[in-house]
Write a structure and sequence with these properties.
Length: about 350
């Protein structure tokens, strides 16, 4: 198999994804708060992938400015990720539609029916996350045009199931819409394997944090480059009475202090000093602003260094276009090596 033949095969494997996204390669950028902004998003789209703005806690005015600034940097398609629990979700959808954003991602919980209708009626394509096959089918019935399944290997807020299991559960059985896979993906060979299982494409976040165009603080990038996969661990819940949504991040002093903070809050609750609601709030507020401290201010000791387990595959700062080209080259090399091995076996 020649390189051109391998590329034709790869393009065929992810054609459903590229057709849906309107991109050259079916590689979506994960929406990472403070990181997935105009510079990185436009760089991913300009390199042939599909960048996604992380709206996070932005106001409608801030999102309006961010979309306009991104559009000034790229003529290629890109999407916007909105958190379903945002108090101004309807207004944020309106901003996206006013700008003609082609793809809207609703994340962070089950999308309200009204939000789904607003996106669909506005002419945008709707992408949703699903942690299980049953919910994925429900989302498709509700109007989702594509789904993302994200394994526990991912960075940030995670579910309990690995991508290798989710892919086996979902990909063979949910074929009505394109399904993109995410979580722990850092090389082209892995992308190829999921495409061959039926994925329409992939979503990568951690690999892009150390892109040259990423505005992440140099100290954060160095922390990523030094880290191994085992350094990216989920936060631990100390007491089942006070749930902690798992967040995968690099372990640092802040992580250790969070454990001590939980223990102190539980002690105060048991002593009658705090109500259950006050105790839960005290735990949830510990990390308030911690992601910004790490990404923007470079406080890698006390901030939240959200990272997927693929952080161990991040070895240097690279231009976004180089990262995407490297992933494609790895997938092509795997296809050509397989073809060569098959030819050798046939000759024997």
């Amino acid at each position: 198999m020649t390189r051109a033949e391998a590329r034709a095969r790869l393009d065929a494997l992810w054609r459903r994804g590229t057709a849906f996204l309107g991109s050259e390669v079916a590689i979506m950028g994960g929406a990472m708060s403070w990181v997935s902004e105009r510079n990185l998003v436009s760089a991913i789209s300009n390199a042939g992938g599909f960048g996604v703005i992380a709206c996070g806690s932005m106001t409608p005015r801030q999102l309006d400015d961010e979309i306009a600034a991104t559009r000034a940097l790229t003529a290629k398609p890109f999407g916007v990720n909105l958190i379903t629990m945002h108090p101004e979700l309807d207004e944020l959808i309106g901003v996206c539609l006013a700008h003609g954003v082609s793809h809207i991602v609703l994340a962070g919980g089950l999308p309200p029916g009204g939000a789904i209708r607003r996106v669909k009626d506005g002419g945008a394509k709707l992408i949703c996350f699903t942690p299980a096959l049953s919910l994925g089918r429900k989302l498709v019935r509700s109007g989702a045009d594509a789904l993302v399944i994200e394994g526990s290997e991912a960075g940030g807020h995670i579910g309990p199931v690995s991508l290798t299991v989710l892919a086996q559960e979902v990909l063979p059985h949910l074929t009505e819409v394109p399904v993109f896979v995410a979580g722990g993906i850092g090389r082209g060979e892995a992308i190829l394997s999921f495409l061959e299982m039926g994925a329409a494409g992939v979503q990568l976040g951690t690999r892009f944090v150390c892109a040259t165009e990423s505005i992440a603080h140099p100290r954060l990038k160095q922390a990523y480059i030094r880290a191994s996969a085992r350094d990216a661990l989920p936060t631990v819940q100390l007491d089942p009475r006070f749930p902690v949504i798992p967040v995968r991040a690099l372990v640092n002093q802040g992580t250790e202090r969070f454990m001590a903070h939980q223990a102190e809050v539980v002690r105060r609750y048991n002593a009658g000093e705090l109500t259950r609601e006050e105790a839960q709030l005290a735990i949830e507020h510990f990390w308030a602003g911690a992601l910004r401290r790490a990404v923007i201010e470079g406080d890698v000791e006390n901030g939240s260094l959200m990272a997927g387990q693929s952080v161990g595959l991040v070895t240097r700062e690279q231009p976004t276009a180089e990262i995407i080209a490297e992933l494609v080259d790895q997938a092509l090399a795997a296809l050509m090596a397989r073809s060569s091995a098959a030819a050798t076996a046939a000759a024997d």
